[in-house]
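Lab notebook, bench 4. We co-purified these components, and the gel suggests they stay together. Before we commit to crystallization screens, I want a quick structural picture of the whole thing.
Request: model the full complex, all chains together.
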Amino acid sequence: MIIIVAKSVVKPGCKAAYIAAARELIEKSQAEPGCLTYDLYEDLNDPSTLTMIEFWKDQAAIDAHNASPHFTTIVPKLAEFREGPGEVHFYQKAE
Amino acid sequence: MIIIVAKSVVKPGCKAAYIAAARELIEKSQAEPGCLTYDLYEDLNDPSTLTMIEFWKDQAAIDAHNASPHFTTIVPKLAEFREGPGEVHFYQKAE
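Here is the predicted assembly.
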């Protein structure tokens, strides 16, 4: 299993638009066979921070996701609402 | 549901000790009634970063966790192996 934590700071006034644009990405990603969980969360201590937390079966599932039409079309749109590139971490269980 | 993402950078040579000390905390936390998932992950791009990713039913579950014997005894020990205070984010689903 690989977990992705993708943290974004949204531009002032763009939060609702970001969440609305992300909705289709979330629904279609959740439907992907290798997706265990995938959703968008807001930081309780910083309303401008929105973070996607994603649990994937393996790297192949992530590769398929990154090549999917919903990823390739929606993710660039989300970037328009974001301050800077965002912060993305990839995790695996610590053994 | 509330998600906690607690990111720590461990001191050189302290990673194995950190993971070993966290094991009991993980097992006992996972057994708590309000815990949906709780585990320790390593950053695939930065071996010194270890992050606890926790899904809790609600704030009451977190309060009970923070008051638990395993939390109050083990978390201070983990701090000994960490560089600085760590970075903790609390998230709820973005609506």
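Chain A is about 40% helix and 35% strand. Worth comparing against the SEC data before the next meeting. Helices of chain A lie at 15-30, 59-67, 69-80.
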